[in-house]
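idk why but the lab printer keeps eating my pages so im just putting this in chat instead. protein + iron/sulfur cluster:
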Amino acid sequence: MSKRYVMVHDENRCIGCQACSVACRSENGVPEGVTRLQVRVEGPFGDAPHLHFKYNRVSCQQCENAPCVTVCPTGAAYVGDDGLVSIKEDKCVGCMYCVAACPYKVRFINPETKAADKCNFCKDTRLARGELPACVTVCPTDALTFGDANDPSSEVAKLINTKATYQEKTHLGTKPRVYRIPTKRGGIQS
Amino acid sequence: MNNTWGDMAQYDPVTWNWVIAVYLFMAGLSAGSILIGIGLRWYSKEKAIESAILKAAAIISPLAITLGLACLVFDLTKPFEFWLILVNYNFSSVMSIGVLALLLYSPIGIAYSLIVLRDELTKRKLDFLVPVAEALMPMRKAIEVVLFVLAIGVGAYTGFLISAMNAYPLLNTAVLPALFLVSGLSAGAAANAIGALLMFNTHSHDTNLSKMHGLELPVMLSEIMFLFMLFCALYFKGGAAAAALASLTTGVWASVFWVGVVGIGFAIPLLTMLMPSQTRHSKGVMIAVACCSLTGVLALRHFVIYAGQSYIS
Ligand code: SF4
Ligand code: SF4
Ligand code: SF4
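predcted complex ->
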């Protein structure tokens, strides 16, 4: 069976420290001014003294049905054998159709390569070396879990099967592969 | 307060800007102008003489598509690698299909223009092109039909291009291609009128010109109908789609819509139809009205591009 890499972001554990963002930047050589990952601190929600924040991870959702791949005229945006949505820099003309079409607004034009860019689950860097993605490794609270959801013994499979999770904008039919565990103090009951 | 997560500039939902709006306008204008030119020729009995409208279309159509494509290429982040898009195709991408259509449409359009303008070529010291025009002459009928079909494709394709993005409720509707095609026709008719009146010194009571004039009202009414359908569809869909209706009431794009599209594009031309026929058919008024229609269509493309991307579901 083929792999199905997913990422789970536990919004209960996340503290919004941005360590993941910094690690991503250094691991993948992301230039100044653009970013593959942000963790936005939203809120506060609720009434004092029970205030809480929401930690919203904004990065490529690795859609199984990816609009960026469908619209790309040259095939520069593609789905690899490992199922990951990546970009062939040398095939990209920079038409920005994918940037416009991504419902999560996580694609950007890399100012150095002039090609579209985004999170690729560290496919070229850490994953290629058999390591976990940089953001996952560096997270001080273990809020991130990464792995093959098709392997029932994997940590991610267990998490998705036992915890209530949600994905963003599922109504668009993109089938995102970033799962989120909602904060218990939040409005969403788990 | 500074946020801890950094610069938000890259997350601006408006990715495609006015350059793309101008391209969409030019492509619609090119297609509309040649569709009207050929349509009127088929409809008229006198086929031996090239009408001033068709001659105007033969100049406007290739010029508009060339300028439009120039906008498109220079809007790429790698303009000098634009050929990549010509050698790699992805048939699930509307852009790829459009590139293929334009690849046929542009040269065939130029070939057809040479045929139509063959007498003008000698007058304007372009004699070296005359043999080419003569050689193309026997294929006129075939070229005309193929060009007509391709022009419908090009006119509608610009609508499909942006309606394919399902994240934007204002763009992701089935009427957009139809709306773009008819508004392209109205731009084409307006530009043809200006061309015929100014470049070929047509009389403002010319029969072909009046025939084209007769098309204006039905074209404009269908434009209004499609716009109405677009907003109704959003309203009944509810949720994020209905929220996009705010584009009609708030922000600068609402003004562009009401002043540019509705006021200048529809109201002024419709009101001039109430003028006495003598004034209405004077050269000055005809040119002014045509300019209003062109402005309206250009405003519509800008409204659709900017307002369309501002509301995301
Ligand atoms: S989140 Fe955006 S960039 Fe990532 S796969 Fe989905 S559509 Fe493509
Ligand atoms: S910007 Fe590059 S990757 Fe994106 S659609 Fe255009 S060619 Fe494809
Ligand atoms: S998986 Fe890799 S590329 Fe993606 S956000 Fe994490 S560190 Fe960045």
